[in-house]
From TrEMBL:
InterPro entries registered for this protein in UniProt: ARM-like, ARM-type_fold, HEAT, HEAT_GCN1, HEAT_type_2
Database matches in Gene3D superfamilies: Leucine-rich Repeat Variant
Any one Gene Ontology BP term: regulation of translation
Source organism, top-level taxon: Eukaryota
Keywords in alphabetical order: Repeat
HEAT repeat boundaries on the chain: 276-313
Pfam family, one: HEAT_GCN1_C_2
Name assigned to this protein: GCN1 activator of EIF2AK4
Length: 895
């Protein structure tokens, strides 16, 4: 042990360290520290070779007390040596981040100053005022003589800042030392002011919260102590600090200015505004971001103090510096920092200047990121400016700036304004504004993370409408926006949109020019933007939603080209087949079958991979209990035949399930009889001469004497459809006479259904050739006692005359028809009365002009002419201005 004790006193640093390690190993770390401190106090070695100052903040009280006593011993015994050796460390200790070191440093520094000035520090300094002093001029001179002016200023500055420390014991110790060694506080403060401010600026910019608090309190205390008269002395120091190469000092200047203005009256700030404003202005354009951020807080305090004048004095210069390449980047960030702390005041000032042509979207975008909800108040001005700018510069940078502004709006009110105003802009006639609006919308909804579910319906409605826009870029941007919205929807949200989406699709279809909606026919895009919603409706929706989704999908198929549909065939067809195989109401099945039929008609061969499933599905639907489902299944099967490679087995299977046609013509069921007759008539167009002769002689034109009226009815129906589908064959020399007689016989039959089918056959013959015998029979039919016969005759005559290819009738043949139709315009039956007017329009060819009416007026009697004129004024003129109907008179087609 004596060897270790002697080693502790050795001049070699390495020897002492080894001794300390031995002590630490033998005893404890505390003993090690104490041993090193005691060695230092005895030998007075270099401070770097010991842990004394750090020990002043040690967690162990024994270590701290030992270090403090060691320091006091050195000061009392070796004062002159201590100044050179210990004072630099104590100066640093005054400004240490740890309060224990600050406290111990104040204590030791006090002991040193007391020793130098020849006073005792044990006297009490508790008085009513903290500015009472007990120092003397002689003690002040002694301190300056021992330390020198520069070091004395640093030491006293540290003590004065200690009076505002965050810890009470530090404040009390600093105040005690200050009162004993300082003779006059205001005079001393003025002497040390430059040094004090240099230290304060560093503290104000420190990352240590305690240091910033100490500096802020000290500044406020300075202005309070010295009064506002000190400002002429402080502000030049601050201005000089802003020119410092040290960034923390420049940052401290800004923080210091803020603290000074907090403790200064408005009038005083206004008096010195000529000095303050340039300082703040320069700091806002400082190259260092931390300085600009601090300067913004200074601006905030300046604005709080002097109001709007701060805006007028600082912002115009910042805007001007945006034009300077060297300062534009810093000035822009300075504006951003100002916006971050005072957006509600700054934004009303900046918006009119930034939105005036040419619109500065770059600055708007940069500032909007920190504008907060204040931005919403100015959207009414900003949005039109953005649209105007983007319309003229549809480049990527301009677009990105506009999107940045919009994405900065995060409140619900602002979101609603954006959506409503931009959608309204898409309704305008200006294609550039429409494109700009939808471009911004696309950017917003592709990137925003906000919840916009409350606006989804109105958004999709406006965007579906834009799918009819003539501008290709508007179409593409609208499609992308819809896609961005729909791909974020959950299943529940998708289902809730089906009704509205169907309505929007119908509205778009009503306005489409041509067959297809341009937005659904974009290359590599097609209908995939809305398909997920409709697909979800078909697969998981309620029965009502399934039906609505299928109808909507059918509308989409009608509006889309085959090429655009092909990439989505699998996604469309699979769900339709799957749900059609389940047990749902007939309304759902008919909707699904209608959609599949439309798809088959549109893409045809593209559905060939699904042929087996489709055939099975349609054949199953043919057996459904609902007639509507069976009819739709038959239509779908008819479309499927066009892509079927082996049709014969399919026909054979269907034929085996029904009686032969001749037997079907005898069916008591009107629907079956009519459908069978229609099939027989249509078949005539595809038979060979021999087969046709056999069918006509044995069935259609066979002798009807003594046969049941239902057979006659079936044959008359078959004859009418045969004339319709194969007029050239049936009007040939071999059959023309027999066909004409059979048609006339049916048309004059006493059974109303037979007469009606005969009159229809007359119409099909008249389309092929206008035979006088047929024309002379029509007036009689128009005046028949049966309203059904009168109505059918009117419809047939309308159907014949509405075609442009039908030659004009001779006046002698037209006159009785006109008179009969005029009589029917007063018929008791509403349908007969209405149809007679439409037939008159076709017969007189009023849609082509008034020539037909004028020529017929010349051969009519006065009573008929008066009736015709009255009818023309009442209804014919209006009807002739409307498009004609495309209705079919064939009643064998199942509907």
């Amino acid at each position: 042990m004596p060897i270790v004790q002697r080693a502790f006193q050795d001049r070699s640093t390495d020897t002492r360290k080894m001794a300390a390690q031995i002590i630490g190993n033998m005893y404890s770390l505390t003993d090690q520290k104490v041993g090193m401190i005691l060695t230092w106090s005895v030998r007075l070695s270099k401070i770097d070779d010991c842990v004394c100052v750090q020990a002043l903040a040690d967690e162990n009280e024994y270590v701290r007390d030992t270090a403090l006593r060691a320091g006091q011993r050195i000061i009392s015994m070796y004062a002159e040596t201590a100044i050179a050796l210990l004072l630099p460390e104590l100066e640093q200790g005054l400004f240490d981040n740890l309060w224990r070191i600050r406290f111990s440093s104040v204590q030791l520094l006090g002991d040193l100053l007391f020793h130098i000035s020849g006073v005792t520090g044990k006297m009490t300094t508790e008085t009513a005022s903290e500015d009472d002093n007990f120092g003397t001029t002689q003690s002040n001179k002694a301190i300056i003589g021992a330390l020198g002016p520069e070091r004395r200023n640093r030491v006293l500055s540290g003590l004065y800042m200690g009076r505002s420390d965050t810890q009470l014991v530090v404040r009390q110790a600093s105040l005690h030392v200050w009162k004993i060694v300082v003779s006059n506080t205001p005079r001393t403060l003025r002497e040390i002011l430059p040094t004090l401010f240099t230290l304060l600026l560093g503290f104000l910019a420190s990352t240590c919260p305690d240091k910033r608090t100490i500096a802020a309190r000290t500044l406020g205390d300075l202005v309070k102590k010295l009064g506002e008269k000190i400002l002429p002395e402080i502000i030049p120091i601050l201005e000089e600090g802003l020119r410092s190469d040290k960034s923390d000092e420049r940052q401290g200047v800004c923080i210091g200015l803020s603290e000074i203005m907090k403790s200064t009256s408005k009038d005083a700030v206004l008096v010195f505004s000529e000095s303050l404003v340039p300082t703040v202005r320069k700091a806002l354009c400082d190259p260092l971001e931390e300085v600009r951020e601090a300067a913004a807080k200074t601006f905030e305090q300046l604005h709080t103090t002097i109001g709007h004048q701060a805006l007028d004095d600082i912002l115009p210069m910042l805007l001007k510096q945006l034009e300077d390449e060297e300062t534009s980047e810093f000035a822009l960030d300075g504006l951003k920092q100002v916006m971050a702390v005072k957006s509600r005041s700054v934004l009303p000032y900046l918006v009119p200047k930034l939105t005036a042509p040419p619109v500065n979207t770059r600055v708007l975008a940069f500032l909007s990121a920190v504008a907060g909800d204040a931005l919403t108040r100015h959207l009414g001005v900003i949005l039109p400016a953005l649209l105007s700018s983007l319309k003229d510069k549809l480049g990527s940078e301009e677009c990105l700036n506009c999107q940045t502004v919009i994405l900065s709006v995060e409140d619900e009110v602002g979101q609603r304004i954006i959506i409503e105003d931009l959608l309204e802009a898409t309704r305008g006639a200006d294609a550039g504004l429409r494109q700009a609006s939808v471009t911004i919308l696309n950017g917003y909804f592709s990137r925003t993370r906000l919840d916009y579910s409350a606006h989804t319906r109105i958004l999709l409605s406006g965007l579906i409408r834009l799918m009819n826009d003539p501008n290709p870029e508007v179409l593409s941007q609208s499609w992308d926006t819809i896609n961005s919205i729909t791909k974020k929807l959950d299943a529940g949200s998708q289902l809730s949109l089906i009704d509205d989406l169907h309505r929007d699709i119908r509205s778009a279809a009503a306005e489409v020019k041509g067959q297809h909606l341009p937005g659904f026919c974009l290359p590599k895009k097609g209908v995939t933007c809305i398909l997920p919603v409709l697909r979800e409706g078909v697969l998981t929706g309620s029965p009502e939603q399934k039906e609505e989704a299928a109808r909507a999908l059918g509308g989409v198929i009608k509006l889309t080209s085959a090429e655009a549909l092909r990439p989505s065939v699998v996604n469309i067809t699979g769900p339709l087949i799957r749900i059609l195989g389940d047990r749902f109401a007939w309304t759902v099945k008919t909707a699904l079958l209608d959609t599949l039929t439309l798809l088959l008609a549109k893409v045809g061969i593209a559905l060939k991979p699904f042929l087996p499933q489709l055939q099975t599905t349609f054949l199953k639907a043919l057996q459904d209990s609902s007639r509507a489902v069976r009819l739709r299944a038959a239509e779908s099967l008819g479309q499927l035949v066009s892509i079927h490679t082996k049709v014969d087995p399919l026909f054979t299977e269907q034929l085996s399930a029904i009686p032969v046609f001749s037997a079907s013509l005898l069916q008591s069921s009107d629907a079956t009889r009519m459908a069978s007759a229609g099939c027989v008539g249509e078949l005539c167009a595809f038979l060979s001469e021999e087969e046709l002769r056999s069918v006509l002689q044995q069935h259609v034109l066979a002798d009807a004497s003594g046969v049941d009226w239902m057979v006659r009815h079936g044959r008359s129906l078959a004859l009418a459809i045969a004339v319709k589908s194969a007029p050239d064959q049936l009007c040939s020399e071999e059959y023309s006479s027999s066909v004409l007689e059979a048609v006339l016989s049916s048309a004059t039959a006493d059974r109303i259904p037979i007469a009606c089918s005969g009159i229809r056959a007359m119409g099909y013959l008249m389309r092929h050739q206008l035979l006088p015998r047929l024309l002379w029979l029509l007036p009689q039919s128009l005046q028949n006692q049966s309203s059904d016969i009168r109505l059918v005759t009117e419809r047939v005559l309308w159907w014949v005359c509405k075609e442009a290819e039908t030659p004009a009738l001779e006046p002698s043949l037209v006159k009785p028809l006109i008179k009969a139709l005029l009589d029917n315009t007063k018929d008791k039956n509403t349908s007969v009365r209405a149809q007679s007017e439409h037939t008159l329009v076709s017969l007189l060819r009023l849609r082509r002009g008034d020539d037909g009416m004028q020529s017929i007026s010349a051969i009519l009697d006065s009573a008929s002419n008066e009736l015709l004129s009255e009818c023309y004024r009442r209804s014919l003129k209006k009807i002739s201005s409307l498009p004609d109907s495309s209705e079919e008179i064939d009643d064998t087609i199942l509907t």
